């Protein structure tokens, strides 16, 4: 019977202990000299002491006084004193003054007002002339691996790959049997993306396919058709971030300036006709970027750009074709 009577009392003790641990604040001092003493002062009163370990770290548990709302938290000023072989951490209500440093002590004020709450962790790095402070709500593991994610902000990029104009050979060859084009040709692109969030961005880019050549012959004639174009794209990008990888889709407007040069040879005579076109249309595509570190990423994308426009001068000749591209390159985060 006496053992049974002890159970409620034991449960109450455990409840108080667990509640106290849940409400406790953790103070970590890093970069100190092994063997130094560390004191934590709250509103001028010492609440806990400890010793710096061989790794230069000291971890202490302190409990703040309960405020008017019944919670152990406060808006605090902080400072740290170096007093010989003792480090003294001050946590003081913002409406109070930090106690003056003792004789032979050097004071370092930690600028700012800190909301120290239940289960807060305060990490103070004293390895530098001006100490740094990290305030975290919850546990802090200095050895936890860094989880890298995709960045926001301005990202520049450049790359190269392959491109193909869908109907260039069909239009140039007509019914000439011995006729064909280069198929896929090289291309490169340059540009910049402003990621407003990790999933929404605005991009401007320049795409430059290599000159596409179509050649044909029959009987006593032959011809060569060359298509050269510059393309500027402005798109909205929607991304799906997965750690350091971002899959994205994109779509928007495109502007092209192109030159088609047709050279026909009949017997010993040749004639060249040149047509210049420009115009607006649309582009769309998608791809993936993988961030190697905080600054650099590799990317790959595929897309289609509608090349549509009219002759610049007379406007009598029109062009309507589709450029397919596959590009790979590197991205660089500017800020």
Task: Give the helix/strand layout.
Blueprint: H1 2-23, E1 25-30, E2 37-42, E3 45-51, E4 57-62, E5 74-83, E6 86-93, E7 106-116, E8 120-125, E9 132-137, E10 153-165, H2 168-173, E11 178-181, E12 185-195, E13 200-209, E14 212-218, E15 221-242, E16 245-266, E17 269-291, E18 296-311, E19 318-333
Parallel strand pairs: 1-8, 2-6
Antiparallel strand pairs: 1-4, 2-3, 5-6, 5-7, 8-9, 10-12, 10-19, 11-14, 12-13, 13-15, 14-15, 15-16, 16-17, 17-18, 18-19
Summarize this structure as a short list of keywords or feature phrases:
mainly beta; single chain; Porin; 2 domains; 2 helices; five-stranded mixed β-sheet; eight-stranded antiparallel beta barrel; 335 residues; 8% helix; 63% strand; disordered N terminus
Structure description:
The chain has helices at 2-23, 168-173; strands at residues 25-30, 37-42, 45-51, 57-62, 74-83, 86-93, 106-116, 120-125, 132-137, 153-165, 178-181, 185-195, 200-209, 212-218, 221-242, 245-266, 269-291, 296-311, 318-333. The protein has 335 residues and is mainly beta. The chain folds into two domains: 25-137, no CATH class; 153-333, Porin, CATH 2.40.160. The strands form three sheets. The protein has an eight-stranded antiparallel barrel. A hairpin with a 2-residue loop joins strand 2 (37-42) and strand 3.
In short:
With 335 residues, the protein is mainly beta. The chain is built from two helices and 19 strands. The protein has helices spanning 2-23, 168-173; strands at residues 25-30, 37-42, 45-51, 57-62, 74-83, 86-93, 106-116, 120-125, 132-137, 153-165, 178-181, 185-195, 200-209, 212-218, 221-242, 245-266, 269-291, 296-311, 318-333.
């Amino acid at each position: 019977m006496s053992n049974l009577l002890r159970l409620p009392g034991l449960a109450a003790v455990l409840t108080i202990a667990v509640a106290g641990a849940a409400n406790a604040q953790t103070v970590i001092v890093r970069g100190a000299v092994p063997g130094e003493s560390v004191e934590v002062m709250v509103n001028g009163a010492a609440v806990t002491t400890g010793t710096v370990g061989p790794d230069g770290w000291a971890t202490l548990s302190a409990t703040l006084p309960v405020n008017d709302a019944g919670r152990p938290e406060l808006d605090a000023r902080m400072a740290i004193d170096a007093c010989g072989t003792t480090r003294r951490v001050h946590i003081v209500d913002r409406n109070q003054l930090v106690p003056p440093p003792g004789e032979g002590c050097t004071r370092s004020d930690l600028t700012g007002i800190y909301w120290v709450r239940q289960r807060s962790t305060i990490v103070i790095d004293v390895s530098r002339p001006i100490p740094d402070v990290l305030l975290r709500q919850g546990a802090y593991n200095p050895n936890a691996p860094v989880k890298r994610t995709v960045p926001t902000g301005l990202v520049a990029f450049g790359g190269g790959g392959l491109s193909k104009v869908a109907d260039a050979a069909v239009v140039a060859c007509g019914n000439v049997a011995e006729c064909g084009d280069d198929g896929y040709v090289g291309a490169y692109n340059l540009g910049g993306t402003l990621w407003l969030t990790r999933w929404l961005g605005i991009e401007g880019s320049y795409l430059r396919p290599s000159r596409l050549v179509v050649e044909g012959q029959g009987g006593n004639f032959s011809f060569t058709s060359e298509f050269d174009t510059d393309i500027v794209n402005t798109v909205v990008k929607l991304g799906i971030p997965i750690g350091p990888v971002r899959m994205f889709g994109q779509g928007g407007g495109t502007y092209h300036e192109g030159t088609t040069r047709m050279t026909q040879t009949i017997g010993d005579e040749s004639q060249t006709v040149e047509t210049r076109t420009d115009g607006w249309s649309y582009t769309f595509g998608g791809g993936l970027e993988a961030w190697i570190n905080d600054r650099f990423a590799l990317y790959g994308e595929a897309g289609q750009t509608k090349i549509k426009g009219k002759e610049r001068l007379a406007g009598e000749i029109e062009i309507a074709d589709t450029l397919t591209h596959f590009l790979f390159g590197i991205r660089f985060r500017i800020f």
